Structures are given as C-alpha cells and as structure tokens.
C-alpha cells in the first residue's frame, strides 16, 4: 500500500490547480482575460472609447477584485456586457461592471426564456463542488480553485439581458468593434461563443474547457446532449481562431493549439458517444460498457481531455440512460430487491452482522475500498450500524485520495464527513 502511483491521479488534479492562478493575460491587442480571480474567467475588450465585458464572474465581490486587477486597462463607459451562458458563476457580477453606464446586456434568448435547471436535492451530504469541505481536504473543483467556497455564487449582481440573440449566428458592431456571436449549445443550451474576427480571438463560454467535458454531471442534471455539443465544436473549428479564452482555466494561445483543443474535444465526445451507442445496439449493459468504452491513447493523453471535471464512465452511463432509458436489459433488474431486503439476506448469508462488518473492515485494510463501501452499504441498509457507517466513511475517503476527478473527490469526501457527523 501507499505506492506513489496509487495517488498519481490526485497529484495530477493538484497540479491542475495552477490553471487557476491569478493573472490578467493579454490574449491579443486590447483583449484581456482575468484568470483565477473568480470561479470563471472575465474578458475585457477595449474599444476606442469604452469597454466590452464578456461574462461577469460569480458575484459582486469577485467582480470588484477583477475591476481592480484590470486597473487602467478597464475604461468606462462599459458599452456592453455579454453573458456566454446562464450559470451563476458567469453572471453574478454584472452590476459592478455596468456601474452607472447602462450598457447593453446581451445573451441568447434561451437564457431568459428557460427556467432554472431541474436538479436532484442533496443526499447524504454529497457535494460535487466541495463547498463544505475544510481547506485542508479541498484541492479544486475541476474548473476552479477556492472560489465558490469563500465567495459563493450569487444572483445579487445579475442584470437582466436587454438584447437577445435569436439567430444561430449574429454579427454585431458595438462602439465600432466587430463581434460575431455563435450559438454553441452543449454545456448549456443557451451557450453563445463570441468571435472577434479582427483580433482572431474566440471566447467559447463553457463549450470547451481543459478537462474531459462534464456530459453527465453527478449533481443530478440531465445528459448534456453530445450530438449538439459536437455540432457546436465543428462550427467553432471553422473560425480558425488564434487565441481562445474558455470560461475556465488558462487561455489557449496559437492557431495550431486552438485547433487541437477544439478537435480533441470534439473527437473525445464523438468516440465515447459512438462506442456507447454501438454497445447499446449490441445489448451491452451500462456496467459492461463502463469497462470497455475508452478514449484511444492519443486522446486519453490530451491535455484537453483529462478527467478533472467530467469523466468517461459517467458520460457512458448518462448516454445510456438518455438513449436507452433506465433498464439495463437484465431481467433480474426489472424488480430488484430493496437495499434493505438485500442487506438482510447478505447478513444471513454471512452468518450475522458482525461477520459482515468484519469482512467490510478487512476489505478496507487490504485496500479494496470499493468493496468495503459496498459491503458496508448492505449492513447500513439493513441495520443502520454505526460501525459500518464508519467503515463506509473511511472507504470513501480512501477512494477520494485516488481520484483525478475533482467532483468525485469532493463528493466522496463531503459524504464521508457527513457520515462521521462532521457535517449536517
Ligand atoms: Zn462555467
């Protein structure tokens, strides 16, 4: 036990935190990105006599920090604010940038017409973003570091859009500056990409990030439609951008590198989708497909597809449920035993609660953490045993420490804290 390679994923996740170090980056003449000051990036475009802002950070506190960091580069008045999409980490600081300038607030029409996303309520203390974790346990949230923990996302600084984009593509001239807006759904149905044809800079929103895409988020959202996402990436590839400022992480600079990022992203989604659909047609179950669907080596090694935020296995399960429904095709699973009934039978099979708890404890000791958690679940479902609950908490903590995926790590660790009574 405790071979360094066991923790390679976690150390990769830790290293990825450097993506969120604070810096103002000039990606092209007069186009600046504020990285790492909030959960998401803010872009400032200078015009001859004003500023245009793309995305506004998570809340007014972060937005004020960003205004100060931009310093003299940020010139009033602000002529326009563009929201790439509705997520609160991108829209919560608009009032600060707007000030008294009364800028146009631009978004896709879907942003104002769609209601809030349906999402599962909290369960057993789980939290994909690690919001409740103590600093010592938190590495990052996959797309951000501590922001969202110390200064939570709010709607306090949200300003209602005043100019809505309907078309798939729309050309705008604001304060003499040409912008091309491209509807690019995927992560969010209302996502728009902003293309600056003269500066050759692309601001794609969250349609491309430096992580495998979060196609099927564990916080309980619908599948983000892969075919729609692929089509959006194809559209953005045709622009031939020379710099790209995604909604999170450091910008991608250089024509070849931007093309590679977009291509890897598209190919990664396409391959996982194709392999999964092919498996479904051949009658494979989600559990079987998770064992076999893989990115080919070249894509698995891509810096744009590391599983810091999204993850291939969950994408497979999400695609399966979306295309084929909840039933895996195994008749045993049409009406499975309840967890309690199964737990009682497992206890009887093992010759009592103590024997089963001992097996769970042994599994934990030998590093078979998933099995330890599964055995503990049987006991917990049947008896609510405190000892089994503690074994489960320890097993989840150990699984967390071997994760490259931030949302898995955060979910394991937050649940473990809850099970130990350290959180309520
Ligand atoms: Zn985002």
General description of the model:
This protein has 424 residues and is α/β, with parallel strands linked by helices. The chain has helices at residues 8-16, 60-70, 88-91, 94-98, 109-113, 226-237, 255-281, 286-292, 297-300, 312-324, 339-350, 353-365, 369-383, 386-400, 406-419; strands at residues 23-28, 31-35, 42-46, 51-54, 78-82, 104-108, 163-165, 169-174, 177-183, 192-196, 201-203, 243-244, 252-253. The strands form 2 sheets. A 7-stranded mixed β-sheet has the order 1-2-3-4-5-6-7. Strands 8-9-10-11-12-13 form a 6-stranded mixed β-sheet. Helix 7 (255-281) packs across helix 10 (312-324), helix 11 (339-350) packs across helix 13 and helix 12 (353-365) packs parallel to helix 14. The chain is elongated, with a radius of gyration of 23 Å. The mean pLDDT is 96.
Give the key terms.
424 residues; alpha/beta; Metallo-beta-lactamase, Chain A; Serine Threonine Protein Phosphatase 5, Tetratricopeptide repeat; 2 domains; seven-stranded mixed sheet; six-stranded mixed sheet; 13 strands; binds zinc ion
Distance between the termini: 32 Å
> How much of the polypeptide forms β-strand, as a percent range?
5-15%
Q: Radius of gyration, Cα only, in angstroms? A: 23 Å
**Any idea how many domains?**
2
Number of helices: 15
Topology:
Layout: H1 8-16, E1 23-28, E2 31-35, E3 42-46, E4 51-54, H2 60-70, E5 78-82, H3 88-91, H4 94-98, E6 104-108, H5 109-113, E7 163-165, E8 169-174, E9 177-183, E10 192-196, E11 201-203, H6 226-237, E12 243-244, E13 252-253, H7 255-281, H8 286-292, H9 297-300, H10 312-324, H11 339-350, H12 353-365, H13 369-383, H14 386-400, H15 406-419
Parallel strand pairs: 4-5, 5-6, 6-7, 11-12
Antiparallel strand pairs: 1-2, 2-3, 3-4, 8-9, 9-10, 10-11, 12-13
Bound molecules: zinc ion (ZN).
């Amino acid at each position: 036990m405790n071979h360094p390679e066991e923790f390679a994923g976690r150390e990769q996740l830790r290293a990825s935190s450097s993506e969120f170090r604070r810096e103002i980056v000039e990606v092209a003449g007069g186009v600046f990105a504020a990285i790492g000051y909030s959960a998401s990036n803010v872009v400032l475009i200078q015009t001859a006599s004003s500023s245009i802002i793309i995305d506004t950070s998570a809340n007014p506190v972060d937005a004020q920090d960003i205004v100060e960091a931009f310093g003299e580069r940020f010139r009033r008045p602000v002529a326009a604010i563009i929201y790439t999409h509705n997520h609160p980490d991108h829209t919560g600081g608009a009032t600060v940038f707007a000030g008294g300038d009364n800028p146009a607030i631009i978004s896709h029409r879907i942003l104002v017409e769609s209601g809030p996303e349906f999402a599962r309520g909290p369960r057993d203390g789980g939290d994909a973003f690690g919001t409740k974790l103590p600093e010592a346990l938190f590495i990052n949230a996959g797309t951000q570091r501590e922001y969202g923990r110390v200064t939570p996302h709010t709607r306090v600084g949200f300003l209602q859009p005043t100019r809505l984009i309907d078309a798939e593509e729309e050309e705008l001239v604001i304060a003499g500056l040409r912008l091309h807006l491209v509807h690019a759904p995927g992560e969010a149905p209302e996502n728009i990409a902003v293309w600056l044809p003269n500066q050759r800079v692309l601001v794609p929103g969250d349609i491309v990030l430096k992580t495998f895409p979060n196609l099927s988020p564990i916080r309980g959202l619908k599948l983000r439609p892969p075919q729609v996402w692929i089509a959006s990436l194809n559209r953005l590839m045709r622009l031939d951008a020379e710099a790209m400022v995604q909604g999170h992480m450091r910008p991608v600079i250089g024509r070849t590198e931007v093309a590679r990022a977009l291509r890897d992203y598209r190919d990664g989604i396409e391959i996982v989708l194709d392999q999964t659909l092919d498996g479904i047609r051949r009658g494979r179950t989600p559990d079987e497909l998770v064992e076999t669907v893989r990115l080919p080596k070249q894509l698995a090694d891509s810096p744009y597809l590391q599983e810091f935020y999204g993850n291939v296995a969950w994408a497979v399960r999400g695609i399966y449920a979306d295309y084929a429904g909840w039933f895996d095709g195994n008749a045993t699973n049409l009406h499975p035993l309840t967890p309690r009934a199964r737990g009682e039978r497992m206890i009887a099979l093992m010759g009592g609660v103590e024997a089963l708890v001992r097996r769970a404890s042994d599994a934990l000791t030998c590093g078979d953490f998933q099995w330890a958690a599964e055995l503990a679940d049987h006991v917990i479902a049947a008896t609510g045993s405190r000892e089994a609950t503690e074994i489960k908490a320890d097993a989840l903590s150990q699984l967390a420490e071997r994760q490259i995926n931030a949302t898995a790590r955060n979910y394991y660790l937050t649940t473990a804290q809850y099970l130990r009574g350290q959180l309520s």
